[in-house]
């Protein structure tokens, strides 16, 4: 994999490009507290977000809000090239409060997917080139230039939102439709006991087949996804309520505090209490 990347000193903005040879499944953390803008320069990918699978091709741009479970997987063809941008709301908030209206539009939808025209692809490519030049050169006021370039991309996305429907890019595969149903069920029932045999019985398929196509479609094993859904719910309770850890473990579907602590640290890299402390220091 050939990569090029830049991260601002305050962690408010980062951009990277990658040329990937062969098959590839992303391995990094699958949800985060930043917006993600993903642009596919070449190849095809399946982009799983929330409870849907999108089939994206060259020239497609995806933007998702913070905290969305997501992952990209192979679309049965090797090799792809992409640009990936992460940014915090605070990175553009300092420019002009009115710019936040673009993100508010996105927040109401959770994600945006569109295939750019040839002309718009050239415009986007030029913006990415300028971003890398500014990031690498670090001339005076380069962060202001990066903010302006990002706003240009977001403004174009804002114009697109009323003209394109993300559902046009949904995979038509019956397998993907079935897994979308399973994901929706997990998202709505993570407080209950969830096992592979119980899920397989609920959706009238064999446990082995369910496990295999779930991993192929989402990039997660069933247990990984169930744990992610529960940890994500627990994080929100840790940050936004004063509930005790034992109560949060119960309200997010974990069988015990020890299981909660272990799984939470596996997924996030820190303990529940450290998560709460960190949120108070932001």
UniProtKB/TrEMBL annotation:
It is an enzyme of class 2 (transferase). Residues 180-278 form the HTH araC/xylS-type domain. Its EC number is 2.1.1.-. SUPFAM superfamilies: Homeodomain-like, Regulatory protein AraC. One of its GO terms (molecular function) is DNA-binding transcription factor activity. Keywords: DNA-binding, Methyltransferase, Transcription, Transcription regulation, Transferase. This is Bifunctional transcriptional activator/DNA repair enzyme AdaA. It comes from Ruminiclostridium hungatei (Clostridium hungatei).
